[in-house]
Amino acid sequence: xxxxxxxxxxxxxxxxxxxxxxxxxxxxxxxxxxxxxxxxxxxxxxxxxxxxxxxxxxxxxxxxxxxxxxxxxxxxxxxxxxxxxxxxxxxxxxxxxxxxxxxxxxxxxxxxxxxxxxxxxxxxxxxxxxxxxxxxxxxxxxxxxxxxxxxxxxxxxxxxxxxxxxxxxxxxxxxxxxxxxxxxxxxxxxxxxxxxxxxxxxxxxxxxxxxxxxxxxx
Length: 218
Prior knowledge:
The protein is an alpha+beta fold and 218 residues long. Helices cover 46% and strands 21% of the residues.
């Protein structure tokens, strides 16, 4: 886990004020200040939230307590821990504004598997709260025709696409980031590309399909 000094250095490198960082993290700036000073015991989950937020914003935490700006727009996440970081990164983007989440080619059962328990409970509950707070935020998913497993329907709109259109692996667009998820029952690798033009390409592709897709409720 990152140290208090790394948290402070990351925020400084990114040029984010303590007040803005605290807002994005869903905490008071007094609490963040105390964490950065090392003045309080902080739950592991909260440190992970902070680390994931800064990594998603563009820094790399290096061995020995260092912090560096990310020199490229690719983040690779693996396994259940990586999936948890991915979920937190999506929430961080949602808190920034109106990310228009677009998911295609996904089977929600795989999200159920890799995020079983606290990861999904926290993510789905927080997403539902954030979208209810600001309905202009959108989350949409294109799933295979006939699939009626919609565990995220508190915050997600679903539509059907044909089996022919359903791709080999899911892509997940949020904010200016695009995640490609390569997963199975045994392993998961998530490649997050932080580039607005890549996100624009995949979002446009998604929107073309969304217009033509079928509403499962009809």
